[in-house]
């Protein structure tokens, strides 16, 4: 129960530190006979990889994924799938001076008190690099859900630093400005999941909404999560907020509005699943900051490692992956009991 | 994995339907030798009970809790604790006419499609009545956390229908107005948890923030959750948002601000844990609504059951309970590996 | 993880002490629309109930089961099923003198050291009475497996005190003799499970054989478990022990022998599942025994509570129940991933 | 729940096929600050490695373990530990002709029916090679238990093919004879675990005996398991079998005999834990055997791969490892709730 496994039936057990030997995960419980190639996974990893543009960290990890078990002649066999990326381009010397101090709003202090020991190289296990495992596992879930159920994930950046994003150019310019100031910025990502069948999610503790919330809060820097109308819905009257049922032209029961965000009583109702995820600004900034060290002395910190001024562009595939893993797990759970 | 158990080491397995024989839960994993009386639990249950005032449902359940195992001579023995409240004052005839139709924004349709069968009496398992189990289990967690670690929970209503709440009178008046309109309204609850030691929470998938999010989304009608700065934080710059460390007059490392909401890298950092929970307006309203029935015919629904126009007043102890259960579970997990 | 839940998808969470309020369990994950009546469960409980004959404990518990949730109009709804029997005919005064001493080969000492507190009335949680919950949950599993898959359980006593049992009369006489000596005796039960489809069981850690072993060792007094050829097979050569495949007259692949006991590589192969369970003699005897008390003083113990001289007759439905729960759980697990 | 994880708090998630990329495991939940070197693990792996003598398979795997996460500067950090051995010396061509047939008493048929696909190279996931992961994880558990609690594991071969083993020479000669006959043989291993503190094990479903049983049945070829007096105890009277308590010269409560095998009511009582494990003869033999293929045709099988005529010599460290993992897990569980 040390918290490195996500899911009940589609189980992702992640491992790895930023500057250790490798990061990755074991995916257990995947149905057999699903075609999976390195490319299926690599193309999503490439979307989260740093070093892609002027607005992401220049760390040039290749993030080259290896599949070391569970696939035979291009197909899943039903046995655990080991997905692993070796760590390269490691510059622990960048971090040597950070080893005795606690960076503000990072996990340095909490890890050290919790475990009494800390791999300080690049944030160790708290590094964003561990989300590579989420994306790799998510690629498998997405492929299954797409082929089997036609489920699609549309995940996009909604606002950065409070500014609604309309174009990539606009976003890039905004982030560059902040980067040049030596600062960082947060934002929100919104997600739509289409074609989820009615019936996914358990009604009491493991509501689909609850597990999506947990999934998103498993991503570093997430501070808020909403389903459907979210916090705006808290200001509404029931008569406006209720999603009336009607029968559509295909003779299917649908809702006229979707304030529920596709989930009612914790269970998917067949409408689009709608959610929003809020990310705080990246904690690492180039600007000088005061903090304290192990000896409780005040020190001044000026970061020089390679970091993103804004996590949002790289977070899109991570959000997508966690949504896919969650829905995949609930599909298998529903199948076990009810299909 | 049918989703009726919450927690890994402090495990709450809930059961019961609104109009079945009983609702309650089994609490497994509670440390032994904790003094627990019926009163410890009953006093919290009384806070969530309907029928207390003009603004809550007139259903007059006594919610009389029975403890049927796990306590001997007033103390926990380390064995599972069965907490149970018999269902009385049941008026299933109130619901008979609802049996064939799907109430808007309720779980009627999703349950029926998921399971192919539905206990339609009072919402069955999707009834708010099941949260009685949350509160009963939470009372035990709260007592342990208070006695052992001095942890305190301050949970209160922040806004209702978009209006900040300053006094109970104000709130009562607002809800009465809405009730008279035959409508319902949502709102937000904010929570502060004080004296949580550094080190609770698992760093990757089972972050303390992630499990709090899941806990809150396990409550009916929850549509949003935030930790610390939440969605507001998404608009900030890192240089403003970072919580600088300093050494306080007791020689303890603290943070000057608390945008992190007491959790860094998924682990409690010793500051107050701050969170917000958003509730949608109650789905049951007296106003006429169109919906469809099993035969896909349009029908008009006029609710006559006993319901709350606003879930917030009764949700306060539920939020408190789920926060306590989550923190209790993480305390035991931390103890297992690290203490 | 306090060990009161068995199963992953068909989950039985048991509770209760011999002389507390009630014993029973919550069954979570049962598929919906299964017809279950009180009688379906009661008839198995009656088989394990004490007070039935000259050779079982005269304790006259009615073991009257109540179903308090999860069943609606005679059918499972997919929500948790609470099964509960109130404790009656309790004579804690029988046990008062046992409160400060440790009965040989009982759990008195281990509970007291583990938890620092012990419900000494009738053995508390270590009482055989808790197996009532196993039987109640097993009755549901058996019914599902029978209706859905045609699976049958044939469980019988093989030997008592080393003597092969051919007739009930013979057995009764043997146990009566031992009872009259104020002594107790052990024995073995063998089980055959018929019509298990090919494919149940997970191949590495959760082999069907491994989970059956665990299930049987969850029953008090069990000291040994064998699958198929068991310990006898350890003396054989591979050329004799291997179960050759052949194609039968129905064009099905079968094995000529069944030393494997119906499980190969941890997975059912469609042949009868064959197992044996060994029970030690009951620890409570009327004969005088020396032991020690809390103050580490030697004391003489002469039991006067109501006990069975031999656990075997009442253990048959318990073994059957645990086998059914295990197979049910693995059927749902297999269904989730592979069907 | 696909069965590749063992343990609740000390969790071993295994992966890998005989002829895939690698075999190994992720160990999650290990306490931090435990010194672990490659040597600590490698020395146990060397004990289970094939190719060591005339009586084990000549496959010359180096079984070179790599630690790719969770260890920093020679110490565990509390994060997941990835242990991995690349597969080398693979000769899948040895197995090509086995691809379409079902070897007697192997898992070929059951895997194929369960998953609809099968990695036939060297038995795939059902290969004994996967137990490398058990041994690697067990080495960590053993080290912790030894350093922290002084726990020792004494595991040895008791009999082979029904012949009690007194010397290694004797055993080697026996196995060589059988090997020359092109046959295989089974046997039993007995284990003693010393210095286990009182209190490990959960009293109802997760009895220490039950989890040890499950652990041993997780090893390929295991057909029987006994605790303490085992099946012999089933023939005894209670007055002989009961372990009387007394106070020893160190003023500790002990038992005069140990028919209980160190576990009472599912919980360790401080005496030596005693158990026996029965292994069937290896299924792969050189002798000709009839079997059937995918097309349900009878075929003759003459094995030519590299196999052990007797699994016992290599099984000793595997039994030791599974015992250590089980006790480690229960120690952490006990610590969480009770220490």
Write structural notes for this entry.
Chain A is an alpha+beta fold. The first copy, chain A, has one domain: Chorismate synthase AroC (Chorismate synthase, AroC fold). Helix content of chain A is 28%, strand content 24%. Chain A has 8 helices and 19 strands. The first copy, chain A, has helices spanning 38-48, 108-115, 131-149, 168-180, 208-217, 230-233, 238-241, 312-338, and strands spanning 5-6, 11-16, 22-28, 65-67, 71-72, 75-76, 81-86, 101-102, 152-160, 163-164, 187-194, 222-227, 245-247, 253-255, 263-264, 267-268, 273-279, 289-293, 298-301. In chain A, the strands form 6 sheets. A 5-stranded antiparallel beta sheet of chain A has the order 1-2-3-7-4, with helices on one face. A 5-stranded antiparallel beta sheet of chain A has the order 10-9-11-17-12. In chain A, helix 1 packs across helix 3 (131-149), helix 1 crosses helix 8 and helix 3 (131-149) packs across helix 8. The model of chain A has no long low-confidence stretch (mean pLDDT 94).
Task: Summarize, please.
The structure is a homotetramer of 339-residue chains. Helices cover 28% and strands 24% of the residues of chain A.
Keywords:
alpha+beta; Chorismate synthase, AroC fold; five-stranded antiparallel β-sheet
Main sheet strand line-up of chain A: 1-2-3-7-4
Number of discrete helical segments of chain A: 8
Task: Give the helices and strands of chain A as they follow along the chain.
Answer: EEEHEEEEEHHEEHEHEHHEEEEEEEH
The CATH class assignment of chain A is: Alpha Beta
Overall mean pLDDT of chain A: 94
**What share of the residues of chain A lie within helices?**
25-40%
- CATH superfamily of chain A, by name, is Chorismate synthase AroC
Q: Name the chain pair whose interface involves the most residues.
A: A-B, 112 and 111 residues
The general outline of chain A is: globular
**Oligomeric state, counting identical vs distinct chains:** homotetramer
CATH topology of chain A: Chorismate synthase, AroC fold
Strand content of chain A: 15-25%
Biggest sheet character of chain A: 5 strands, antiparallel
Head-to-tail CA distance between termini of chain A? 30 Å
């Amino acid at each position: 129960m040390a918290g490195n496994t996500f899911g009940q039936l589609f189980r992702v057990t992640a491992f790895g530190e930023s500057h250790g030997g490798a990061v990755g995960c074991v995916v257990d419980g995947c149905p057999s006979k699903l075609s999976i190639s390195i490319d299926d996974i690599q193309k999503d990893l490439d979307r989260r990889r740093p070093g892609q543009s002027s607005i992401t960290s220049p760390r040039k990890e290749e993030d080259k994924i290896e599949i070391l078990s569970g696939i035979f002649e291009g197909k899943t066999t039903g046995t655990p799938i080991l997905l692993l990326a070796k760590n390269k381009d490691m510059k622990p010397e960048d971090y040597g001076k950070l080893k005795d101090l606690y960076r503000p709003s990072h996990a340095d202090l909490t890890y050290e008190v919790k475990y009494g020991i800390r791999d300080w190289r690049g944030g160790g296990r708290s590094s964003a690099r561990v989300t590579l495992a989420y994306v790799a596992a998510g690629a498998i879930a997405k492929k299954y859900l797409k082929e089997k159920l036609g489920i699609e994930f549309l995940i996009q950046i909604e606002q950065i630093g409070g500014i609604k994003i309309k174009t990539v150019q606009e976003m890039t310019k905004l982030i560059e400005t902040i980067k040049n100031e030596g600062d960082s910025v947060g934002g929100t990502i919104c997600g739509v999941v289409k074609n989820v069948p009615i019936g996914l999610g358990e009604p009491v503790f493991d509501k689909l909404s609850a597990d999506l919330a947990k999934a998103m809060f498993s991503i570093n820097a997430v501070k808020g999560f909403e389903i459907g109308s979210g916090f705006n819905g808290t200001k509404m009257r029931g008569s406006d907020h209720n999603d009336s049922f009607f029968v559509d032209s295909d003779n299917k029961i649908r809702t006229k509005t979707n304030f529920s965000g596709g989930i009612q009583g914790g269970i998917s109702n067949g409408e689009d699943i709608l959610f929003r995820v809020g990310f705080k600004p990246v904690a690492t900034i180039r600007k000088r900051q005061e903090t304290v060290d192990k000896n409780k002395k005040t020190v001044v910190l000026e970061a020089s490692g390679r970091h993103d001024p804004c996590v949002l562009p790289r977070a899109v595939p991570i959000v997508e992956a966690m949504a896919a893993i969650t829905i995949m797990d609930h599909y298998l759970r529903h199948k076990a009991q009810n299909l």
